[in-house]
């Protein structure tokens, strides 16, 4: 179930054909989902409710052809590797992987190994891959280190440019959003032809928020579907103890500083659904553009070109892209909620889904 299937499109801009980040040509997404075991938590044994999601930015070699990118931190209680150089140089030179908090290292190392394997003969590897996390320790044996290098490799190898699986898949498998079952969600928007006809796609790993703050299309759904209607998880973890990662892709020809502005606008989409960037939340946003393909990775070449020609959109026409990011982020979060199924995890904690019929009833009562 997705929000548009319920008959409630968000915003004023049109969605792309797939209503997914893969509407941006060349962008691919792959998942590895790990679910096993039940009952009492036993460190190293399970239950396991976790995984890896990989976003590949274009159809060429991600290691040798960078794209411009920008980063924004709403609240920093989280991790996204590789962003110091991304902010310094303004380029993304790896896939983007999403996983759980304690698996960032192994996934990062797996991406480094993939680069070493896939670089042309004689090229020297230099890798600062982007790997981001949210914490799935309510449902998952997060201290058991169940994500391994082969799981990251499988997610990367399986990445496709078609419809994107959502909900309890990949890195989103064990995530909780506004005290409903959360996870991976995606959406897209196209801007009018008069301002370029560009596409913006968003993918989120949603593991944030409190029930009473959940708001969808301006409706206080979390108060209407409170704990007396759909019970909140029976966990000692305080509400709002979580994070959200937002990945924004566009084919608009933007410079790094413009992409940083796009990433910043993802925060408005989070806010529209009731997220506030709590003290314990890691709310990290990255935006990249495929609109200037063909730039060389200078550190992989002994003789990089002296100059490179690029295009850029005038800032006078950037507002529709801001609108697109906000709308797509909000809808991606809602899609994550609707796609996720009720899950029983470690110590038999149950996290319930947001039922589509309940949401439709709430939205029609506005």
Topology diagram in text:
Elements: E1 28-36, E2 48-56, E3 67-76, H1 83-89, E4 91-92, E5 96-100, H2 104-118, E6 130-134, H3 149-157, E7 176-177, E8 180-181, E9 183-190, E10 199-207, H4 221-224, E11 243-250, H5 256-272, E12 282-289, H6 319-339, E13 343-344, E14 350-351, H7 356-364
Helix pairs in contact: 2-3, 5-6
How is this structure best described in words?
With 366 residues, the protein is an alpha+beta fold. It has one domain (3-296, 312-361): L-amino peptidase D-ALA esterase/amidase. It has helices at 83-89, 104-118, 149-157, 221-224, 256-272, 319-339, 356-364, and strands at 28-36, 48-56, 67-76, 91-92, 96-100, 130-134, 176-177, 180-181, 183-190, 199-207, 243-250, 282-289, 343-344, 350-351. Strands 4-3-12-11-10-9 form a 6-stranded mixed β-sheet. The longest helix has 21 residues, at 319-339. The protein is globular. The two termini are 21 Å apart. 54% of the residues are buried. The model has no long low-confidence stretch (mean pLDDT 95).
Strand content: 15-25%
Structural class: alpha+beta
What is the typical, i.e. mean, pLDDT?
95
Overall strand count: 14
What's the CATH first level?
Alpha Beta
- N- and C-termini, Cα separation: 21 Å
CATH homologous superfamily grouping: L-amino peptidase D-ALA esterase/amidase
From the alpha-carbon coordinates, what is the Rg to the nearest angstrom? 20 Å
Would you tell me which CATH topology applies? L-amino peptidase D-ALA esterase/amidase
Measured as a percent range, the helix fraction is: 10-25%
Task: List the total number of helices.
Answer: 7
Globally, the shape reads globular
Element pattern in H and E:
EEEHEEHEHEEEEHEHEHEEH
Strand neighbour order, sheet with most strands = 4-3-12-11-10-9
CATH architecture type: 4-Layer Sandwich
Question: How many structural domains in the coordinates?
Answer: 1
| Low-pLDDT sequence parts | none
Q: Main beta sheet, described?
A: 6 strands, mixed
